[in-house]
Amino acid sequence: MDLSFFRADGAALVPTELAQSMWDANQMHGVAVSGALGRALERSVADLGRHDLRPARLTVDLFRPATMDPCETTTTVVREGRRICLVDAVLTQGAVAVAVARASAVFLAPSADPEGDVWSPDDRPVPPPENVAPPTDVPHVPFFHSEDAGWSQQFGDHQNGSRKRSWNSAIPIVAGESITPFQAAAAVADGASLVTNWGSGGVQHINTDITLTLARRPEGVEIGLAAVDRVESDGIAVGTVAVFDRRGPLGTAVVTALANAHRTVDMGGIEYQDDGSRRSR
Question: Buried-most residue among 3, 32, 251, 256 (CB within 10 A)?
Answer without folding.
Answer: 32
